[in-house]
Design a protein that fits this description.
alpha/beta; five-stranded parallel β-sheet
Length: 159
């Protein structure tokens, strides 16, 4: 029931045209938000575990930004053995400017006085006083199909 209330509060917050009220509603949903924070329209905070997200004072979060704190594969797939459900603290320190359309993945810390340019995908921590631009997309690893079977065998032996 608590999760449903959080989701409804966040949905309502996205419809509110007043910045201050929007921040208050996100606080009520469980996101830890400091003083003087601007939250743009259409921002998506982690709905299942907003308590893992911390936003520092005087931070501006642009429209349509996504900030997550957990990873889960919602389908019944073999990938779950390799990528189990995880919850990670996601921190945006004070005096950060997040431009519109930024994606922040679970477990990163954005250092104070940093700027995240429009469309940036943040998948590792950012030091203070940094300017981050671009998506930085690259294929980091090719998955070995045999690893799925090996992970499944190991999981079944521990049960």
């Amino acid at each position: 029931m608590r999760t449903i209330a959080r989701i409804l509060i966040q949905k309502f917050a996205n419809m509110v045209p007043f910045d201050g009220i929007r921040s208050d509603l996100y606080r009520a949903s469980g996101v830890r938000i400091g003083k003087g924070v601007f939250v743009g329209e259409g921002v998506l905070f982690d709905k299942l575990h907003p308590e893992y997200i911390e936003i520092g004072d005087r931070t501006a979060i642009g429209a349509r930004t996504i900030i997550t704190a957990h990873q889960i594969i919602p389908t019944e797939t073999n990938l779950r053995t390799l990528y189990p459900e995880e919850y990670k603290r996601t921190v945006v320190e004070h005096d950060v400017w997040i431009m519109p359309g930024v994606i922040i993945t679970p477990g990163v810390t954005i250092g104070h006085h940093s700027v995240l340019a429009t469309g940036a995908v943040i998948h590792k921590s950012v030091p203070p006083y940094s300017l981050v631009v671009g998506g930085g997309f690259r294929v980091a690893k090719q998955l070995d199909p045999a690893s799925f079977e090996e992970a499944r065998r190991e999981a079944s032996q521990t049960e």
